[in-house]
């Protein structure tokens, strides 16, 4: 499958879940073992709690340690140093972009010890401040870290981000975002679980489930469970 064909395929993808699966496949076929996508609310920092985050090819603990607590939490990866040049860069290049070089080098050594040795980071730009970052990492071969490869992957990542913006135009338009618990409950509703089943899964009462659902209805501007699930999925607030 050619690079040009992959770009053409993007316009035919009809849901965020299918888009993510397609992007993962493109990265895997290209020779990368991991992928990350992050999109904070417009004009917010990557650490904003409502940031969309997806990742594949690393454990939850590795992602938390090296991406959230490390690259972002320690201030190595910020909107200021990652979006300013509008071009792809290797994650090892961050040593030149951060003022915390010694901390970064320590983090790099720890990452190398678990196989996170290098990868591309792509600044992404979208409508109305919907900017973000994508990354393909753990390359199978050093040739994957050439500028030519990075530039092609950036085009694919940017077009994928634009496609997500097209599929979820109202993603950040809710006046009050769903809480973590509300998102959990709507996600379970989306896969057909009843209130009693969700109550058992989450370990809270059915009355609490009903209260959270009603709050979610108000925030999503819907009046029933099905509409809440459909709207939350279409806006990429929850995934099934």
Number of domains: 2
Kindly report the CATH topology of the largest domain. Answer: Beta-Lactamase
Number of helical segments with 4 or more residues: 10
- Which class of the largest domain in CATH terms? Alpha Beta
- Side by side, the strands of the main sheet go 2-1-5-4-3
Query: Mean of residue pLDDT?
Result: 88
SS-based structural class? alpha+beta
Ends distance: 28 Å
CATH second-level architecture of the largest domain: 2-Layer Sandwich
Secondary-structure element order, as H and E? HHEEHHEHEEHHHHH
Parts with pLDDT < 50 across at least 5 consecutive residues: none
Strand content: 5-15%
Shape: globular
Q: What composes the largest sheet? A: 5 strands, antiparallel
CATH homologous superfamily placement of the largest domain: Transcription factor LuxR-like, autoinducer-binding domain
> Approximately how much helix is present in the residues?
40-55%
Radius of gyration: 19 Å
Write down how many β-strands occur, each being a DSSP E stretch of 2 or more residues. Answer: 5
């Amino acid at each position: 499958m050619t690079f040009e064909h992959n770009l053409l395929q993007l316009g035919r993808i009809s849901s965020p879940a299918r888009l993510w699966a397609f992007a993962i496949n493109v990265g895997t076929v290209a020779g990368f073992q991991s992928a990350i996508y992050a999109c904070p609310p417009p004009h917010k920092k990557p650490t904003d709690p409502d940031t969309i985050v997806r990742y594949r090819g690393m454990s939850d603990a590795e992602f938390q340690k090296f991406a959230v607590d490390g690259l972002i939490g320690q201030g190595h990866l910020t909107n200021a140093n990652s979006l300013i040049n509008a071009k792809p860069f290797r994650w090892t290049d961050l040593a030149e972009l951060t003022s915390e070089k010694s901390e970064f080098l320590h983090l790099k050594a720890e990452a190398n010890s678990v196989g996170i040795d290098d990868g591309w980071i792509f600044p992404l730009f979208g409508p109305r401040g919907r900017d973000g970052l994508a990354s393909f990492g753990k390359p199978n071969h050093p040739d994957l870290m050439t500028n030519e490869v990075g530039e092609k992957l950036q085009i694919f990542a940017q077009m994928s981000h634009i496609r997500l913006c097209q599929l979820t135009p109202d993603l950040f338009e809710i006046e009050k975002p769903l809480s973590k618990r509300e998102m959990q409950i709507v996600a379970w509703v989306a896969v057909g679980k009843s209130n009693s089943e969700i109550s058992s899964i989450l370990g809270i009462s059915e009355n609490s489930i009903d209260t959270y659902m009603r709050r979610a209805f108000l925030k999503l501007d819907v009046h029933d469970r099905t509409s809440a699930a459909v709207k939350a999925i279409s806006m990429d607030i929850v995934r099934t």
